[in-house]
Amino acid sequence: MTKIQIRNLIITVGVGLVLYLIPAPGDLKPQAWHLFGLTVAIILGFILEPLPIGAVAFVGITIVALTGTLKTADVLTGFASTSMWLIVAAFMFARAFLKTGFGRRIAYVILRAIGGSTLTVGYSLALSDLVISPATPSSMARAGGILFPIARSICSVLGSEPETTPRKAGAYIMQVVYQTEGIVCAMFMTAMAGNPMIVELASKTAGIEISWGMWFLAALLPGAVAMACTPLLLYKICPPELKKTPEVKALAAEELKKMGPMSRDERILAGVFVLVLVLWTTGQWTKLDATVVGMLAACILLLTKVLDWSEMLTEKGAWDIFIWMGSLVALAGQLQKVGFISWFADVVSSSISGLPWLWALILLVVVYMYSHYGFASLTAHISAMYAAFVAVAISAGAPPYLTCLALAYTANICLAITHYSGSPGPMYFGAGYMPLSAWWRVGFIFSVFNLIVWVGIGSLWWKILGLW
Amino acid sequence: MTKIQIRNLIITVGVGLVLYLIPAPGDLKPQAWHLFGLTVAIILGFILEPLPIGAVAFVGITIVALTGTLKTADVLTGFASTSMWLIVAAFMFARAFLKTGFGRRIAYVILRAIGGSTLTVGYSLALSDLVISPATPSSMARAGGILFPIARSICSVLGSEPETTPRKAGAYIMQVVYQTEGIVCAMFMTAMAGNPMIVELASKTAGIEISWGMWFLAALLPGAVAMACTPLLLYKICPPELKKTPEVKALAAEELKKMGPMSRDERILAGVFVLVLVLWTTGQWTKLDATVVGMLAACILLLTKVLDWSEMLTEKGAWDIFIWMGSLVALAGQLQKVGFISWFADVVSSSISGLPWLWALILLVVVYMYSHYGFASLTAHISAMYAAFVAVAISAGAPPYLTCLALAYTANICLAITHYSGSPGPMYFGAGYMPLSAWWRVGFIFSVFNLIVWVGIGSLWWKILGLW
Which of B15, B46, B86, B310 lies most in the core, judged by the most C-beta atoms within 10 Å? Predict the structure, then answer.
């Protein structure tokens, strides 16, 4: 280990130890407090990286089990979660895109059409996500099965590789797809799995009905502003070294000619691609969840030998994400189970009572946003906090529609705050184009930007719409 | 795919389809019948290998979920099971044995002492297992953490590698440790995790008390016969090409001299080895389960850089076993949950009523033994069938102690029947020294041998002891 790694290890262990040893505040169970302390230390370890993050997670859950904070079986629950296996399947899918050349072909087609600059490429990827999102409620399926393989292929075609030339185009492109993903989730009630739950909770807690159309109308102005600004803003914040690419269109056309007609494997992959797209968009009728569709895609690729089994087993990146994200999913789920989350919501609620409603609402929105540093899933966060926060704001006197919508969109735009904040994160971050510290910095900048656009501009827009 | 692979794929799919389509017998729920049919097809796929077994398992659970036989989340439950993560941890441990040279050193020490022939090596490994077993109730921990790394190192030292020279010594040695493992489990009440459950079930169902001493005394004669014969019998059935190795003792001594003193990494590994041995044997007091101890070992190796994280991720064999064994563990657990197992036990019970007790008991023992083809865990099998079978035999008039003991030992010796029949199997089979068909053949031969020894000779021995 280097000196810095040892220093970071000491800091991580030290913070964990201190949090573990100080007594649980208020009436919180010691078990819940210990779990919180160890989870904070693990997340700190993700940032400081005294070991690779997969190893940090593995050591972390071992300590959680060794100290008896959780049973061994409980720290492993994340490895059976459907979203983890969708990630594994998506990795296989992306591997096939790379191996067959199909990803390169799609990238060339896009670049031939709009390859004039890195900026236009960024916009076109964001728009592609938007177009399929109303009918594909799994953001992970969109990211892992569709956008990530294409974005990754475009980076390679533009000559940007994670080890040698990350800033040429890759860092920019990965951030564009990631930051716009949260916006796209917020745009439609059917663009993210947890949104229908928000609608239900809003109805139960605040007694208001949000239709598909109202959700979309309310999101239209802030969504349009955010979508229009994000690729441009990123262009300033993490500028790609490759800017104008006038020769790329001609090059792409030439390369496509060189590639010739599609190979057998490419045609199979294209068929599978269309199939999963159809199955993902028709999921609400066929009742096939996104994970089983992703696994089916991997099965077809295996049976047709487009992919070998040994290629699946050596897909190092998939297993790395599997371990660290799976660990975090388990810890986040258990934090809820042992009562930490409800205790936290209560503390926020009681400390806010007495404030004027506007300040109470602003504070609640901000707390909701940044408490997402402790979550690995939008849906888990919603089920833990949405209803409680809506109830507190309304009891402080905030208008119901304003409250429900502000918290609903906040529950989506917090997607891009860290690399583990939702299932698409590990994919884009895992591509390796950007160090963790930069990833978090950009995530924080856009959390502020999105709060201003969605809650600031949004609340004015909803006033004009007559919603409050 | 080769022609044979395509033929085997058609057979596997065909059997699955036929079983799926014929109506469920009797009052069995269609879901339970479908799950049984698909599980049979998956196990058939393991034998015929139209694809590598990991891929068969992956495709299999995808089909189980696609057909709606189980929910997607249910087919994934095996991946969070503690025994799967003990296997992953054990693989890392074995990797460290290989990498540091510590495994080679231990192997040389053993060979210097008793390396006169492959047969003596076989016996000494079997005895090592026996010595630590009374205090190490996790057969997986013994196999994965202790015996497997040493056995694997001895094979390499004897010049037997899975790809090129499997029959030189490796196939023989792996089978010796595997086949004697089941015998060792049966010897002591504390040598296998499910045995205390047997004692409890025997007390509840038949009203008899089996003490630690009685268990051992009843096992003493059949156990001694089985332990004495197994390495010799295997020597005939799968003879190692390397037999007498007179030069090996001298060679080992010379190699040990060449290796010099232990390196830093070896010393750390030796320390970890002693630590886990202590923690595994004191588990009943410290309440640390075998999995968390295994994970702790992997953590120490990671933190001290004896192993790199990337080495853990590229441990292909671990992920392969993880997927196929994890799939099977989930399916076996769900077969119980949907009521197939209890239905099966009922069918056996009712078809046996009316038989003389001796024939009823023999039939029950044989059915118990071979129904283990459908199980991935001794403990799961015990919890599913032990009590029911004891009850049926006793109601047919069989003496309680004879019944309880015969089924108790059968519940242990069925360990080595397939490569997935318990958690040590995937390790030894996964080393790759023997093709699947040969593995199953040897497993079947020893199932017959063990039945004769344990139930045949055993019942006479228990008569002499005055137990019935």
Answer: B86
